[in-house]
């Protein structure tokens, strides 16, 4: 039963954090950020928020720094928005799975194009 509740809390946090980032944060270092996953500890005190960021490595670093700086603001908004006894403190982590998938697709397309038709 704890697993299903934790899954619901993770999904709720994901939606609310994405909303806060998209509508309330005005930091220009935060460009196009997507919250991909949230992993909350069993005691609900901490949450790892995985984000995907569109841009270069420099953009990633700047956006992650801005998100970490805004963590307190985000936590305060979560307290006001959510009806949870305990609202976790958030820590942002990069999720580069989309970039890796694109790179793998690119490699496969290159290999596919270089294969001879008779093989």
What does this structure look like?
This protein is of the alpha+beta class. The chain has a single domain (2-114), classed as K homology (KH) domain (GMP Synthetase, Chain A, domain 3), CATH 3.30.300.20. The protein is 54% helix and 18% strand. It has four helices and three strands; from the N terminus they run αββααβα. Strands 1-2-3 form a three-stranded mixed beta sheet. A hairpin with a 5-residue loop joins strand 1 and strand 2 (46-53). Helix 1 (2-23) packs across helix 3 (71-81). The longest helix has 22 residues, at 2-23. The radius of gyration is 18 Å and the shape is globular. The mean pLDDT is 89.
- The rounded distance between the terminal residues' Cα atoms is 53 Å
Spans where pLDDT lies below 50 across 5 or more residues:
none
Name the assembly state.
Answer: single chain
The side-by-side strand order for the widest beta sheet comes to 1-2-3
Radius of gyration, CA atoms, in whole angstroms: 18 Å
Order of helices and strands: HEEHHEH
Average pLDDT, rounded to a whole number, is 89
Q: Provide the CATH top-level class.
A: Alpha Beta
Q: Strand portion, in percent?
A: 15-25%
For the biggest sheet, the summary is:
3 strands, mixed
Number of domains: 1
Overall geometric form? globular
Determine the number of helices (DSSP H or I, runs of at least 4 residues): 4
CATH topology: GMP Synthetase, Chain A, domain 3
Could you tell me the number of beta strands?
Answer: 3
Structural class by helix and strand composition? alpha+beta
CATH level-4 homologous superfamily: K homology (KH) domain
CATH architecture: 2-Layer Sandwich
**How much helix, percentage-wise, in residues?**
40-55%
């Amino acid at each position: 039963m704890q697993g299903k509740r934790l899954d619901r809390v993770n999904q709720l946090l994901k939606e609310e954090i994405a909303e806060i980032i998209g509508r309330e944060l005005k930091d220009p270092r935060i460009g196009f950020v997507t919250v991909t996953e949230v992993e909350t500890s069993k005691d609900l005190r901490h949450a790892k928020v995985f984000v995907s960021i569109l841009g270069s490595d420099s953009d990633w670093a700047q956006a992650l720094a801005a998100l970490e700086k805004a963590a307190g603001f985000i936590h305060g908004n979560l307290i006001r928005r959510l009806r949870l006894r305990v609202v976790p403190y958030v820590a942002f982590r990069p999720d580069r799975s989309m970039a890796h998938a694109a790179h793998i697709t690119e490699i496969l397309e290159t290999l596919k194009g270089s294969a001879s038709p008779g093989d």
